[in-house]
């Protein structure tokens, strides 16, 4: 998944104050892929900052991260929320979902981490990944390759079930049609061919850093047992069950998730654990 990396700041959108942080557009290039995102920086921030990279799920956009930005910036994090190329019909990076690929999404996360590690304003010992649903699977795969360049990771109802689901639906590669519609979103054959070979738990367990898993016990899209197994697989993991929550947190479930993420990523807590 290695790729060339370049940076482009959009000149059309100036930084704008928003509840204790300022945002601006940031494009990051991963080979031929151009990744659109927004960078949120705490007001008055100086020196090298910790970074939180936030990955949305299937069919989502960078808007998923907005529930977390105020809290994370208040902890001193610079945040980057982005649209996976081909990850959604609404993606500002590339809306052609027929080219969607979990492997490409993991590679995009790796490229984003490399970008922030190359910057003098990044605390390279404090780069966190946050991924929801399919973005959680992509983050987990990326972390397995990135190793200790990722300080810690949050997986929110991660869709670790994707290979199992589609290998059950398409018993052989020959069974995969040219186009499959998932919740109305068209996907090409490559998506399903690639996930056939992903051994989720053998791969994600290579990451040895701290992991927080958040999952609702009424999730009917990704059964919580996938996160329970992940918690047993990781060397340093905690699973927090949000009771009564389904896939996609809202209301009190979202508030609980934000609070748990804040506690896990608190610099004070990290200092105690890492010393």
Give a short synopsis of this structure:
By secondary structure, the chain is an alpha/beta fold. Helices cover 33% and strands 28% of the residues. Helix 7 (225-233) links the parallel strand 11 and strand 12 (236-242).
Write the topology of this structure.
Elements: E1 5-9, E2 16-17, E3 21-30, E4 33-42, E5 49-55, H1 66-74, E6 78-83, H2 102-117, E7 122-132, H3 134-146, E8 152-156, H4 162-169, E9 179-182, E10 185-188, H5 189-195, H6 200-204, E11 210-216, H7 225-233, E12 236-242, H8 251-265, H9 267-274
Parallel strand pairs: 5-6, 5-7, 7-8, 8-11, 11-12
Antiparallel strand pairs: 1-3, 2-3, 3-4, 4-6, 9-10
Helix pairs in contact: 1-8, 2-3
Tell me about this structure.
It contains nine helices and twelve strands. With 275 residues, the protein is of the alpha/beta class. Helix 1 (66-74) packs parallel to helix 8 and helix 2 packs across helix 3. Mean pLDDT is 91; it is low at 1-18.
- Note the run of SSEs as H and E: EEEEEHEHEHEHEEHHEHEHH
**Would you count the extended β strands for me?**
12
**Which shape, going by the Cα principal axes?**
globular
Largest sheet: 10 strands, mixed
Rg over C-alpha atoms, rounded to the nearest angstrom: 18 Å
* Average pLDDT reading: 91
Structure annotation, total helices: 9
Strand content: 25-35%
Counting helices, strands and paired strands, the structural category is: alpha/beta
Report helical residue fraction.
Answer: 25-40%
Task: State the separation between the terminal residues, measured CA to CA.
Answer: 32 Å
Poorly predicted runs are 1-18
